[in-house]
Each structure stands twice: as C-alpha cells, then as structure tokens.
Amino acid sequence: MTQFRPTGFGVLPPVIKNLLIINALVFLAQNTLAGPAMSFSFEDTFALHAYQSSLFKPWQLITHMFMHGSFGHIFGNMLALWMFGAILENIWGPKQFILFYFLCGLGAAFLHLGIMSYELMHATEMYFQSRVDIATLGASGAVFGILIAFVYLFPNTYIYIYFFLPMKAKWLGIIYFSYELITALQNAPGDGIARWAHVGGAVIGFILVFIWKKNNRRY
Questions:
Q1: H-helix or E-strand containing 163?
Q2: Is the pLDDT of residue 7 over 50?
Q3: pTM over 0.85
Q4: Number of domains the chain is built from
Q5: Is residue 210 included in any domain, yes or no?
Q6: What pLDDT shows up at residue 167?
Q7: Is residue 5 domain-resident?
Q8: Residue 74 to residues 19, 25, 27, 210, 212: CA-CA distances in angstroms?
C-alpha cells in the first residue's frame, strides 16, 4: 500500500519554496499596507475583476494568484501546494512545474471571468452594480490543477486527511471535484468562493498531465 504523508519543510524544491515565500510576503503586505488611511488598494489593483469592471487590468490574470483573503485561505492553499506540488516539481523539474502552475491558474481565471461576464451581461442593473467590482483572489485555481495532476499520476496513493484519516487520492479527487462542480452549477448567492475557478484549474491540469503522460511514459 502506497502512503503519502507530508514529510517536513526541511527540503523544498526551488519553485515551491519561492511560491511560498512570495505568497507569504504579498499576504503580509496586504495586511500591513491596508486600511482607510491608505490611498492605495491592493485588491483594486492586483485582484482579478470582471472584464466589465473599470478596475480590470490585464496583469490581474497573474497577480491575483499571489493574493489571499484570510490566513485560513493562504494556509490551506500553501499547504496543498507544498503537499502535492513538491513531488510534481521533483518529477517534472522547475521549468515544467512553473509552466503547469501558471497555465492552471490562467485557465481558472479565464473560466471564472467567462462565467462572471455571462452572468453580468444578463443581469439586472441592481445585480450588475452589486457584482461588477467584486474582487477574486487566491492561488486556489492553480493549486486545484496541482491536486488533480497528483490524483491522476498517483491514484492509489493514500492521502491522510487531517493527518490521520486515510483515503486513496482518486477518491479524494473525485469527491472534491464533484463538490466544486455541483456547487458552481448551483451558483448559490453569497457563497463568496470562485467555484468555477477551481473547476477551470482542475480541467486545465487534467488536460496538461494527460497529454504529458501520454507523450512521456516516465510520468
């Protein structure tokens, strides 16, 4: 039985290490350089906004991946990035891993923007005004792609949920993806989570790892 447990932060692949550092520094800046006295808004400038918003800027497609809304948000994303991403970087190497990471993040962003733009085009004026400037931030889309890649490459590996409950990676992936897809389709008002970004990151991640594995059996 193959088992997978996080083993410690002593040795980190270079891309994972730098992503952890950058995300932590950005989160620190968000929380120390914010407030009513500040004329500059991190979220308005770097978080992702709908195409219809006056706040939308092209660089937000990348920068939103390095921002997080709370300590729990960044902790969960960075823990998953380390747990599942480190082994992928060791297999693929830094260049291929960082390419995979950003492609998943971009796929997540584009699907989220597409769904949001469609909703805004068919929205009432009141709904439009209440939603058009909502900021989306976080590495969740890219991290979800990493999770799906790990599940695809190591489906029968046991992952310890909360460090003690064993579950095969394939079942975790199926349950988690199904939950995100169903919740996204329900489009529950007030959910506050970019479910379609998670779905987009997972889909791009699956397509990439499927192609790479097909073309190179060592994966």
A1: none
A2: no
A3: yes
A4: 1
A5: yes
A6: 85
A7: no
A8: 12, 11, 8, 28, 29
